[in-house]
Specification:
Strand content: 15-25%
Shape: globular
Low-confidence stretches: none
Number of strands: 5
Largest sheet: 5 strands, parallel
Helix content: 25-40%
Mean pLDDT: 91
Number of helices: 4
């Protein structure tokens, strides 16, 4: 079966990241996890994601730094879904396609991904 798309999950909460990864894989996506911003940067080159799900509060390189320095390496059509448990000023999320406040239902994330990738 062909993958519906490659998704990079950038999340330092291992249990949550693995839950999201398994849910995406069950839906037919190829998904991998980066537990910090620096690993995410490396995976931009090697994994070549078609969508990034980015936690904004990360060790090493936070979500805002990732967006400012590395989002330019993503093709212009690669959507980014920012997620955070904290209240985030949405004006600070330049280049982000969607924002989801944690906790959120996984079905909302899956529907958002499907819509952004038009699957």
């Amino acid at each position: 079966m062909e993958s519906k798309g490659r998704i990079l999950i950038v999340e330092d909460d291992t249990a949550f990241a693995n839950l999201v990864r398994r849910a995406l894989q069950q839906e037919g996506y190829e998904a991998t996890v980066a537990s910090d911003g620096l690993t995410a940067v490396e995976l931009l080159r090697t994994f070549k994601p078609q969508l990034v799900c980015l936690d904004m509060y990360l060790p090493e390189l936070n979500g805002w730094e990732f967006l400012k320095k590395y989002a330019v390496y993503l093709a212009p059509h690669v959507p980014i879904i920012a997620v955070s448990a904290a209240n985030v000023d949405r004006a600070s999320l330049q280049g982000v396609s969607e924002f989801l406040q944690k906790p959120f239902d996984l079905t909302i994330l899956l529907k958002t991904i499907d819509r952004l990738l038009q699957n």
